[in-house]
Amino acid sequence: MNGQEIKALDERYILHTYARAPFVIERGEGVRVYDTEGKAYLDFVSGIAVNALGYGDPDVVAAVAEQSQRLMHISNLYYSAPQTALAQMLVERSFADKVFFCNSGTEAIEAALKFARKWAKVNHGEHKTGFVAFERAFHGRTMGALSLTPRPSYQDPFRPLIPGAAFATYNDLASAEALITDDTCACIVEPVQGEGGVYPADPAFLKGLRALCDRHGALLIFDEVQCGLGRTGTLWAHEPYGVTPDLMTLAKPLGGGLPIGATLMTDAVAGAIEPGDHGSTFAANPVVCSAAQVVVEKVAAPAFLERVRALGSYVEESLLELQHRHACIKEVRGRGLIWGIEATVDVGPAIDAGFGEGLLTCKAGANVLRLLPPLVVSEADIDEATAILDRAFAVL
Predict the structure, then answer these.
(1) Which of 107, 277, 310, 333 is most buried, with most CB under 10 Å away?
(2) Domain 59-299: assigned CATH number
């Protein structure tokens, strides 16, 4: 089928919950994808921060092929070597003692919320059920995660939501202090907000949240679904802050392009959870876990992370030069290889202009253009993207 035939069938048969780009992606290689007409696009979206190693990484492909021939699915009624090996890798490289696997970021959030409620009930009683989240947060679209994602356009069609959520101002410790009480079971925060506009947390803010949670006997949950696993130049986005959470959620890049989520936790949290409290038929699929082992091993390598930090500095310099040339660019924010360019107007036309010149970018709110290139991008790729963005922002 050609692109027009595919789009026509998509319109006819698929429920449209996304506004799609006007072309059909057919294949990917390295940091580029190609549409059905053969046009190449430099991909600075990475499947929304998923394809950290780009497209067609030979080690990921080999791991998937080998495991597919041995065992594709078995369920969690049985032990599985790929699941166990991946859990060990994550625990040994993090604060955590235990891992729960699922299939997506929003499922990882749901698990964290359930575990926090159960932990609070076991250790503190029935009253301690509240959650504190933050403005601009995005934690997912299932009912629990959506209840902690304070956006009217996302929430209003589906009310009533899960009760007990309160929202403080991001990077404003005083507003969090006013809401975190002895009835709070957990506070959830992104160390770097992604969908909300690419806002890194202030160090004093995260440290203050840890102290507030300790004071009130609440758990601290870090949502690193988008910003974790090397995206910011450290394995975990919270590392430079010197703050340790009680739970952490992962997903997007973990499976190398295949669906997986993970909720990491301390023994103190895990001790409240019993068989039957939660589960998932497809979680920790052997094929996905085999691919994820490759991703973790590569991304966690010190030289790889050092390279991401260097590339992050290069991106920052390039974007600041871009800002100087365009009055419509209000601010540049980010760390490592997650960046937001905030404009004074809707950035949609700039994204469309990029499509025309073979560059994929995406929004993080109406006025923020977001950059999420594969972590294996090069300086030459960044130069190419910046040149296209220069012309694209001229459209604004």
Answers:
(1) 107
(2) 3.40.640.10
pLDDT digits (tens, 9 = 90+) for 95-138: 999 999 999 999 999 999 999 999 999 999 999 999 999 999 99
The token pair at 153 is 């356009």
Classify residue 135 as exposed, middle or buried by CB count within 10 Å of its CB (0-12, 13-18, 19+).
middle
For tokens 């007990």, the residue is: 164
- The CA distance from 263 to 283, in Å, is 12
On average, the pLDDT of the chain sits at 98
Single pTM value for the model = 0.98
Q: Report the chain's terminal Cα–Cα distance, integer Å.
A: 36
Q: How far apart are CA 132 and CA 187, in angstroms?
A: 5
Compute how many other C-beta atoms are within 10 angstroms of the C-beta atom of residue 282. 15
- Domain at 3-57+302-395: CATH code: 3.90.1150.10
Tokens of 154: 């996302």
What digits encode the pLDDT tens for the residues 43-76? Answer: 999 999 999 999 999 999 999 999 999 999 999 9
What is the SS3 assignment for 353? helix
Give the span between the Cα atoms of 59 and 290, in whole angstroms: 10
Q: What are phi and psi of 261, to 5 degrees?
A: -135, 160
Q: Residue 157: which pLDDT band, with cuts at 50, 70 and 90?
A: very high
Beta bridge partners of 342: 331, 368
Q: Within 13 Å and on the Cβ side, how many CA atoms surround 48? A: 12
* Per-residue DSSP letter, 220: E
Strands 130-134 and 165-168, by their bridges, are: parallel
What is the Cα–Cα distance from 38 to 368, expressed in whole angstroms?
29
**DSSP strand pairing (338-343 vs 368-371):** antiparallel
Give backbone dihedrals phi and psi of 206, rounded to 5 degrees, phi first. Answer: -65, -40
* Alpha-carbon separation of residue 96 from 90, 92, 121, 224, 273 (angstroms): 8, 8, 21, 14, 15
SS3 278: coil
In the chain, where are the structural domains located? Answer: 3-57+302-395, 59-299
- Chain center to CA of 374: 13
As given in the structure block, the two tokens for residue 379 are 């300086």
Sheet holding 338-343, edge to edge: 329-335, 338-343, 368-371, 362-363
